[in-house]
Amino acid sequence: MKIKTKASLLSFIWLTSILISLTFIIYYIYAQYEKEEELETLQFTANQMLTHISPLELLQEDNNRILRKYLPNHAMIRSLDLSSKVINQAANTSELAVIPPKHIDTQESYSQKLNDQSVMIVRSPIHQGTEIIGTLEIITEPIELDQSLYRLVGIIGIVTLAAMLLSLSASFLLSKLLFLPLSRMILTMKEIETSLAIKKLPLNRKSKDELYQLSETFNHLMERIEMSMKKQRQFISDASHEFKTSLTIIEGYTSLIRRWGFENMDLHMEALDAVHDESKRMKHITYQLLELAELEHEPTLTFSSFDLVTLCKENIQLLRPLSNKEFILLPSESSMMIEADRLQIKQVILIILDNAMKYMTHHTHVYLSKTDPNYCIRIVDDGKGIPTEELPFVFERFYRVDRSRSRQTGGSGLGLAIAERIVKLHKGTIQISSVPHYGTEVIVTIPICKTTNSI
């Protein structure tokens, strides 16, 4: 059974239960009120008789005509002496005579059953001065009241049935309206499954309920999936292009060796060098891809305490033999103990310094500072800079600002993506700002306190 049908039936049952309960309560209260009002009317009649008829006339034998003046429909009036003997009696129905007479000293009124028929009885003592000399008894069948209650039951039954039908229709209509976004979502997901095309749900901007939030969340999810698919397609395209270029070069040089390499040793050596360089480049890209995949799917960090200043000095010493350009380290303190994954932080600094070395003109400054709650590594070069419109894309895989120089500089476009991932695993941030022809600034922040040993 669908949730929509379950919700409709549950709401219908709930509303019907409330409606039937209210109907019974209303009927009971109304019936009690009418019965009490009928008893009060009979009591009023008895009081009128006691007021306008003298006690002696009420207890005078064969004086029934006095009682008939006050006789209601379907009723019987009796006057009794102290021994509960009937002195006078007036009735327009013989069925009530079976009720035994009863003398009382205090006024009473009640209803009882007689042959499955409700009867009302009112008894009032007859006073002569301060002395009680008899009892006035009025007994009636509330036929009009019963007929009124039967009509009320019929009306309530019809109204209740109509209300139940309306509530059933309203329940299904309401559940249909409430679950319409879910139905649309299911239909959209089926269309996505069939066509593999990203689609979104229409949003009612006037409504800000939970279903609107669900639809909005679904659309955001579709946007993320679409963005992820675009990135995946771009990644596959870029990776294919990278390997295709290297494989084309290798194929070209091997063909050249097969044709002319054995006759010309210089050409033979040139081809071997080219094939060797492209093989190393493909190996480097493959390792970087594997490293990036490991960082994204199985990110485990090994934290230890080490000196950040010493680590930067080691990285600069590694790069100095590779270039005649100058690296200048400017720490705010002689020693900065940090708790992080040493190898990963070393790799981040090497990636940034390697990029700076490829594009700087004369020198690169490395500034180290400690500002609660972070350590800050700021690397500034004096290279040609990055165009402003290119800055949002520099952390994307295989993205290179100057594609014409990528093979000359040996870049694969994966370094900054790896650096960004490592920094995020440390709960830090990495930012790049640049001014064309003046240089580029990279700022890395790492939290002072260790967050976790395994992420």
TrEMBL record:
Coiled coil: none
Key words, A-Z: ATP-binding, Cell membrane, Kinase, Membrane, Nucleotide-binding, Phosphoprotein, Transferase, Transmembrane, Transmembrane helix, Two-component regulatory system
EC number: 2.7.13.3
A Pfam family it matches: HATPase_c
Catalyzed reactions per annotation: ATP + protein L-histidine = ADP + protein N-phospho-L-histidine
HAMP domain mapped to chain residues: 176-230
Residues annotated as transmembrane: 12-30, 152-180
UniProt xrefs under PROSITE patterns: HAMP, HIS_KIN
GO molecular function annotations of the record: kinase activity
Domain Histidine kinase intervals: 238-450
SMART domains the UniProt entry points to: HATPase_c, HisKA
Stored InterPro entries: ArlS_N, HAMP_dom, HATPase_C_sf, HATPase_dom, His_kinase_dom, HisK_dim/P_dom, HisK_dim/P_sf, HssS/ArlS-like
Subcellular location: Cell membrane
Protein topology in the membrane: Multi-pass membrane protein
Keyword Ribosomal protein: no
Gene3D superfamilies the record matches: 1.10.287.130, 6.10.340.10, Histidine kinase-like ATPase, C-terminal domain
Top-level EC class: transferase
Principal localisation: membrane
Name by which UniProt lists this protein: Signal transduction histidine-protein kinase ArlS
Species per Swiss-Prot/TrEMBL record: Paenibacillus violae
